[in-house]
Write a structure and sequence with these properties.
Its main location: nucleus. By secondary structure, this protein is an alpha/beta fold. Helix content is 34%, strand content 16%. A hairpin with a 6-residue loop joins strand 7 and strand 8.
């Protein structure tokens, strides 16, 4: 009975950046992914009456809440034969996303997605929900990131802060990569105990969402899920944005560089140049 009173909060971070390769090649893929995410979100709400949902759109210029909307809910006419809450979720997400895309500035060159900031906003929303929850109610929170973008090493520090904050707040991070493997987000899933999946094909997107990400983290150990991939924990240098095995770390801001620099480009701390290693004096041979 106590378990039935627990609420599960799912925050979906959906990457809607038009610079993604799968969207550039076929804009219809965005509509296909949106329909699958809406069906997945409604399946989460259908599991338990206490379940809660939030959906964020991560664009190239900002992050916007698609659901729930602040203030008064949208006045939406019910569709015959559909549960009112499901209709509200679907119509609200689609109307808000259309507004976000319509108001976004036009791109002349491909731009990176603000995924790290979107995940930080999701953590802030989870913290607010936990702060305002009724006494005696436990909320199990998790974040699902759906993206087809390449990860950007310029957001490395923000990623790490998000991962360890989620770990401290007992928030599980799940990632569904639609295009290329994402090593940094793999680290976040491993740190928080979440599930990482590189989607084999886009046609089965909804089936993979329901199979891998719909079950709660506590019940996943009883299911046959894809085997975990080997996580690459190498850090990305701040100068060339490439993963390195050995590097130099700033003692002030913990920035990582592949080569020694007398000045930290992040916090502008000046370091002393390493002194050359003095040669050992040769021992004189004792005359017999």
């Amino acid at each position: 009975m106590e378990e039935n009173k627990d609420a599960n909060l799912l925050v979906i971070v959906m990457d809607t950046n038009p610079s993604q390769r799968i969207i550039r090649e076929n804009p219809h893929h965005l509509t296909q992914c949106l329909d699958s995410i809406v069906a997945f979100a409604n399946a989460h709400l259908m599991q338990k009456a206490q379940n809660k949902l939030a959906v964020l759109a991560c664009h190239h210029h900002a992050t916007e809440f698609l659901y729930p909307t602040p203030g008064k809910p949208l006045d939406i006419r019910q569709v015959d034969g559909q549960y009112e809450a499901f209709t509200l979720v679907e119509k609200t997400i689609k109307q808000k996303l259309a507004k976000v895309i319509g108001e976004a500035p036009r791109l002349s060159v491909p731009t990176e997605s603000l995924l790290a900031g979107s995940m930080a906003m999701a953590l802030c929303y989870i913290a607010r929900v936990n702060r305002n929850k009724p006494a005696g109610v436990k909320i199990n929170s998790r974040i699902l990131v759906v993206t087809g973008s390449n990860e950007c090493a310029s957001q490395y520090m923000t990623y790490m802060n998000v991962f360890f904050t989620a770990q401290k707040q007992n928030v599980t991070l799940d990632v569904c990569a639609l295009d290329k493997p994402l090593s940094l987000l793999q680290q976040g899933c491993d740190i928080t105990g979440g599930q990482y999946l590189k989607l084999p094909q886009l046609d089965g997107f909804l089936q993979y969402l329901l199979w891998v990400f719909l079950p709660e983290p506590l019940t996943r150990c009883k299911l046959v899920l894809p085997p975990p991939v080997k996580v690459d924990y190498r850090a990305a240098c701040f100068c060339h944005r490439e993963l390195i095995d050995i590097g130099y770390v700033c003692s002030v801001c913990l920035s990582i560089f592949c080569k020694f620099s007398p000045i930290c480009t992040t916090c502008h701390t000046v370091f002393k140049a390493p002194a050359p290693i003095a040669a050992k004096p040769k021992k004189k041979k004792m005359k017999s």
